[in-house]
Amino acid sequence: MRRPKLITNYGYLSDGDLAVLATRTLDALSTNTNFPDLDPPFAEYEPVAQDYLNKQGITAAGGNLRETKEKDEARAALVTMMRRVTTYINNFTDLASVQLSSGFYPAATPRSTGVPLPCEWTRIRTSRRPGEILLDFPAIREAYEYEKQIADTLDETGQPLWQSAGSTSRSRGNFYAPVQDGVTYYFRVRARNKNGVSAWSPVSSMRATVKE
């Protein structure tokens, strides 16, 4: 049986999704007694996470060049800190329940059924072409096709109203168009092969900016 692990690299997350994870882990670790010797300790993790949350909040609806640069620096520091914390937890315990009590995301585990593994992450990026967004996700070795879904509205419970964005055989070079300026788009994907389909990936989101 494969040893359970947490994802250690969160650089793929959008700014908004990283803020969600930062808040989630702050809540989970603040009173967590499973890691009495957490390294780095929560007292070091908390200010780094909070600094990013503060600066991301300032730039979420805009921000000047200095504020954006400060947010990017805080983001890099948080991603590094998250890698250190999750590496410690992975080495500290083999119990998935204890690992997950930290609030961090689990790494996907292989399945014996032959159904593809789910994509561990997704990302939306701005394209150089106006009115278009780029869709990133990792390649799954046992998959021959990926089913994409996009949403630009939420239902009354705050869940995306998904629409098909087509299928592709590639994990690279995917895009979606047209998009509208100021609209937040949500993206997820699942892998397919002859044995079936994977679970849906984590959801990424981004507020589109369309330059004239």
- Which range best describes the helical content: under 10%, 10-25%, 25-40%, 40-55%, 55-70% or over 70%? 25-40%
Any idea what the radius of gyration is?
A: 18 Å
User: Class by helix and strand content?
Assistant: alpha+beta
Average residue pLDDT: 91
How many distinct helices? 4
Give an account of the 3D structure.
- The protein has about 210 residues and is of the alpha+beta class.
- Helix content is about 30%, strand content about 20%.
- The chain has helices spanning about 15-30, 40-60, 65-90, 95-100, and strands at about 125, 135, 145-150, 165-170, 175, 185-195, 195, 205.
- The mean pLDDT is about 90.
Write the layout of secondary structure elements.
Blueprint: H1 15-30, H2 42-59, H3 65-92, H4 96-100, E1 123-126, E2 133-136, E3 145-151, E4 163-168, E5 174-176, E6 184-193, E7 196-197, E8 204-207
Antiparallel strand pairs: 1-2, 2-5, 3-4, 3-6, 6-7, 6-8
